[in-house]
Amino acid sequence: MNRTQFSKLSIGVFALSLLALTACGRGGEEAETAVFFKNLKNGDTVTSPVKVEMGVRGMEVKPAGEIVAGTGHHHILINMGAMSSGTVIPNDETHRHFGKGQTETELELEPGDYKLTLQFANGAHESYGEALSASINITVQ
Ligand SMILES: [Cu+2]
User: Fold this and answer.
1) What per-residue confidence (pLDDT) applies to 84?
2) Mean pLDDT by 10 residues, the chain (141 residues)
3) Which structural domain range is residue 128 located in?
């Protein structure tokens, strides 16, 4: 986590986040925070609608709105990789937001090969970057 990211996280924080401070101090936040597909793995063949269960470790899921350190919501990016840290995630067919704090969804996808990226972002939809993303390739029959 660099200084810019840290100051962004600090905006809107009402109390100090011991978690973030600890992670910065140890430089070990990658191991302690992560997102993951709970029910899908790389190489899976599935049928539409594709149920996706979204998991996160070391962060709290919170509906979009205000920026609070240590919290955010899930996004699924279709046929692209992680978005760099601080980038505002667009809202369109290939950038799905789960701003109500949802942790599962069903995607309607035409048959074909897809790359799905799970991307965690803060309350203002600013990406937490690659460290809080996970990508898999799946085939929809
Ligand atoms: Cu969002």
Assistant:
1) 98
2) 52 43 47 93 98 98 98 98 98 98 98 98 98 98 97
3) 3-140
Q: Which of 1, 126, 120 is nearest to 61 (CA)?
A: 120
**Residue 77 belongs to domain with CATH number:** 2.60.40.10
Q: For the whole prediction, is pTM greater than 0.85?
A: no
Centre of ligand 1 to C-alpha 70, Å, is 15
95-97 vs 71-78, strand pairing mode: antiparallel
Residue 22, C-beta contacts closer than 8 angstroms, at least 6 positions apart: none
CA pair distance 75, 124, nearest whole angstrom:
12
Ligand 1 centroid–CA 132 distance in Å is 14
**Nearest one of 135, 128, 116 to 29, comparing CA atoms:** 128
Kindly give the residue spans of alpha helices, DSSP state H, lying in the chain.
Answer: 3-10, 18-26, 29-32
Report the number of distinct structural domains present in the chain.
Answer: 1
